[in-house]
């Protein structure tokens, strides 16, 4: 059994290093994070299968890396709560509430909420709010592509 695990581990390291060499420089950091997380989960699964760790402890340990993103998500809780209340407690598709535009675009009100600007804000204020949010949410700084795209869309809606 130990021989099989050793061979699989050696093969896995070889494949990861081979893939690492082919990656462009800007993608190596993201790949390293994914590889480290995968290795962490693999070790937990190995310990779980061999009976050296309890299943609840393994589940808790698997959630630890996700806790890092929690403060970023909590920052948007007021926006989500106000959207939920607007729709009568029915979420984004609530009856009688505000529905998204049929083309899937963003409304001006949503754009103002995302950027945190008041109605009638000047283009300079909109650009400043956009820049401030992008410094926090840009994918190169640990943010997500989805949030950065939403911030960009909000700026485009307000400036058009």
Q: Compute the number of helices.
A: 8
**Into which percent range does the helicity of residues fall?**
55-70%
The third-level CATH topology of the largest domain is Helix Hairpins
The structure class reads mainly alpha
Write down the overall geometry: elongated
Mean pLDDT: 79
Low-confidence stretches: 91-100
CATH architecture of the largest domain: Orthogonal Bundle
Assess the beta-strand content as a share of residues. under 5%
Q: What is the terminal-to-terminal distance?
A: 64 Å
User: How many domain regions?
Assistant: 2
Which homologous superfamily in CATH is the superfamily of the largest domain? DnaJ domain
> Biggest sheet, open or closed, and with what strands and sense?
none
Secondary-structure element order, N to C: HHHHHHHH
User: How many extended strands?
Assistant: 0
CATH class wording of the largest domain: Mainly Alpha
For the CA atoms, what is the radius of gyration?
A: 22 Å
Protein traits:
about 160 residues, mainly alpha, Helix Hairpins, 8 helices, about 70% helix, elongated
Structure at a glance:
With 160 residues, this protein is mainly α. 68% of the residues lie in helices and 0% in strands. It starts with a helix and ends with a helix.
Describe the structure.
Helix 2 packs antiparallel against helix 3 and helix 7 packs antiparallel against helix 8. This protein has eight helices and no strands. The N and C termini lie far apart (64 Å). The protein is mostly helical and 160 residues long. It has two domains: 2-69, no CATH class; 72-159, Helix Hairpins (Orthogonal Bundle).
């Amino acid at each position: 059994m130990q021989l099989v695990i050793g061979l699989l581990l050696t093969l896995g390291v070889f494949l990861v290093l081979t893939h690492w060499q082919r990656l462009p420089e800007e993608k190596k950091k993201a790949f390293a994070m994914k590889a480290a997380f995968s290795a962490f989960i693999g070790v937990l699964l190995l310990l779980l299968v061999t009976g050296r760790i309890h299943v609840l402890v393994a589940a808790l340990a698997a959630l630890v890396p996700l806790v890092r993103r929690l403060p970023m998500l909590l920052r948007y809780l007021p926006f989500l709560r106000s959207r939920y209340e607007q729709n009568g407690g029915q979420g984004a598709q609530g009856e009688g509430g505000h529905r998204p535009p049929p083309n899937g675009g963003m409304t001006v009100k949503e754009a103002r909420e995302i950027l945190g600007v008041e109605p009638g804000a000047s283009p300079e204020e909109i650009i400043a709010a956009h820049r401030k949010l992008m410094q926090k949410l840009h994918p190169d700084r640990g943010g997500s592509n989805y949030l950065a795209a939403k911030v960009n869309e909000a700026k485009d809606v307000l400036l058009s």
